[in-house]
Amino acid sequence: SQIRILQSNCIGCGTCVQLCPFEALSLVDAQAFVDHNRCVVCGSCVPVCPADAIVDDSLPDDVMPGDSMVDWSIPDEPDVKSIVKGNETSTFSGICVYAEHTDGALVPSVAEVIGAARQLTEGTGLPVSAVLLGSEIGHLTGELLELGVDEVWLVDSPNLQPYAEDAEARCMSELLAELKPAIVLGSGTRRGRSIFPRVAARLNTGLCADCISLSLDQDTGNLVVTRPAYGGSIVAKIVIPHQRPQMATIKEHVFRPASKVSAPSGTVRDMSSQIRVSKTVLEILEIVKGRADPANLLQADTIVAVGRGIKKAENLPLIYEFAGAIGASVGATRAAVDLGWIHPSHQIGQTGSIVKPRVYFACGISGALQHTVGMEEAETIVAINSDPNAPIFDLATYGIVGDLLEVIPAFMETLKAEKQ
Ligand code: FAD
Fold first, then answer.
1. Pocket lining for ligand 1, CB < 6 angstroms
2. Model-level pTM?
3. 4Fe-4S ferredoxin-type domain spans which residues (predicted)?
4. What is the predicted ipTM?
């Protein structure tokens, strides 16, 4: 399959040349020319051509730009980017949530993103929709409606196979340009981080990644997001005032998941026949599953976390023994990780996991902001630190000033005595 130029249609406007992500198009004698050594047949050039002069041979014969199935022409606006320019922001409304799924199930963070969207729209009357893209995923619509979504926008296509993220991003861009939500939210998962920048670039709009809070500006209705910036030394407030949709990914485990509604009243809008879904340019050779949470922190009821105060890696077995005795998972600060004492999957904080256990033991941890953002929502915090002025004590429910290498063995002696 390849991209072809219909010379009789080409008007030499150069729009495709500017937008080709692979620099595979150029103008030769005022006509578009494809360098097939560079072209990956991503299909981005097809919809942008105002003269229907570009053909993607990989499409079925009965689907061509300009067909009745999809109207690629943009009335009164030859530049595709202007479909989503902010000077017409009032034509965009509502909040759309990206419904990520894997192995036939929604990922848990979708409920958090819907929770964030519902919290934002509370009392405003703004609708919350969900964009659900994939192959044979219609069964997930019910769950989205149960989470309080007003409308599910579904595109079900065999081209949307797992990890076909280029095809998914193209499909999502078309859908959003068509349905025009004012805000698009997703989760800061690996997939969210892959899809959202591609979509934002295609729609020529702004994206704020890994947000930790969201609100609507009372006067303008603009989305206001906050996220750590400059290495965590400040928390920045960011708005996207002129472009639509306003896109953001939110950090996992920060927002409360949406609760199920007792009588779902939302509807499903099947857009599968209206949105063109091109094939992926990727070839998936093998899917090797890893454990999403190898340190088992996200679901842990109790966490024993260690910091630089354990002094050396040789003291870690004591922590594991204590954690094992009370059925806890082991977490760590970045300092302990950076020193090579423990695997990065154990890291808690701004650049690690955000956890909400019932009990959190902070052992030899000073309480730096970058760590505490990841554990401050624990129900009970027990801090063991030899420095009575350590900031972690400001957060702790119970504070023990002392050497953890003495305090933890004493805890374990007490536990053993109680068991006997
Ligand atoms: P320290 O700050 O060195 O504290 C060690 C503590 O142990 C001290 O309070 C000391 O009094 C106590 N202590 C010493 N000996 C004993 C003993 N025998 N018994 C009891 N207590 C003892 N950090 C994270 O944790 N997670 C993150 O995700 C993260 N992200 C970051 C992102 C950025 C961009 C930056 C710049 C930093 C980040 N950090 C993160 C690092 C963070 O700023 C701190 O440096 C780190 O959390 C400190 O780890 P700590 O408490 O183990 O070490």
1. 231-232, 307-309, 333-336, 347-352, 364-366, 368, 370-371, 374, 384-387, 390, 403-405
2. 0.64
3. 1-30, 31-59
4. 0.99
